Amino acid sequence: MAGCKGGATPADGGPSGSAVPTSGDARAVSPLDNPDGTKPGLAPVTSAADKARARSVIAKVATKGRGPKTGYARDEFGYAWTDSAPGGIPFSHNGCDSRNDLLKRDGENVRFRSGSNCVVTSMTLHDPYTGKTIGWSKSHATTVQIDHVMPLSYDWQMGASRWTKGKREDIANDPLNLIPVDGPTNGAKSDSGPATWLPPNKQIRCSYALRFAQVSLKYALPVTPADKQTMLNQCGG
């Protein structure tokens, strides 16, 4: 999986996904009120006070240069969308893989495969990255992909190459680091940091920067100086 791609699942029938502009997701929660990533969406951070709170979080992030990608492979972070990440992260060991956990967390009008309360076959997603509403079905699975906010190869270059396999499985499946989004937009991000890629939807760029910082701090992973400055800039810093 190059960067955050790889959200596809086998075809399962049903209508194709479509996207239209939307005014926003009423269910979405600000990262300031969602420190473990278990609540849906990525609501904008808008007030001056909340932007100041966001900057105070981002300011705690350590920096260093991006290391080599030598040795990186998606498999170094475990089987994609495992339910058995060992670190006690939310949703793990609940009988449902992490991809479906995230589709259930953020989707509306969720429908499941017959006989299952896990495998999502269709839903409506209010995509924070583009501001569009996507009518998604499993038969066109790649129209929605699960973004790793801190991309796995970025993690590898910033220090995860020295971690245990279990810790890498944790960050790859932690809902704090995972957001269902428009597939092509996720593909365009690849493994970029904030200095080279930000969501097209400008309203949620501070929230995105804050979420990036939350993941960085939880896993003690630094970001590049340019990425940190860009993150601060999104929140008025």
UniProtKB/TrEMBL annotation:
Segments carrying the region annotation (Disordered) are 1-50
Q: Which UniProt keywords apply?
A: Lipoprotein
Name-wise, this protein is Lipoprotein
Organism (species): Streptomyces naganishii JCM 4654
GmrSD restriction endonucleases C-terminal domain location is 98-232
Instruction: Tell me one Pfam family matched here.
Output: GmrSD_C
Instruction: Give the InterPro entries listed for this entry.
Output: GmrSD_C (IPR011089)
